């Protein structure tokens, strides 16, 4: 066969009843999040109001030679894992740096 399942890893053989499953979930459930939107991307006129920290090229307003190229500049949390979007943003900003923009 192309795939053979092994023994159950979680919650394990000891958890069988509905009550045990609910208790397992209550005890072990957690959340995972990816911090985004902490460094707002916007226009220079939005700096005073706190609505912008970097421009569309990742340049930090008021600081020369510093750029931000990560998920902190996203305007909102993405519906999935942000890794590919961060790669795309970083590639764009790297290209801006290389071409002198």
From TrEMBL:
GO biological process, one term: secondary metabolite biosynthetic process
Cited InterPro entries: FAD/NAD-bd_sf, GMC_OxRdtase, GMC_OxRtase_C
Domain named Glucose-methanol-choline oxidoreductase C-terminal: residues: 8-90
Pfam families per the UniProt record, alphabetical: GMC_oxred_C
MF annotations from Gene Ontology: flavin adenine dinucleotide binding; oxidoreductase activity, acting on CH-OH group of donors
Family, as annotated: Belongs to the GMC oxidoreductase family.
Name recorded for this polypeptide: Choline dehydrogenase
Origin species: Colletotrichum higginsianum (strain IMI 349063)
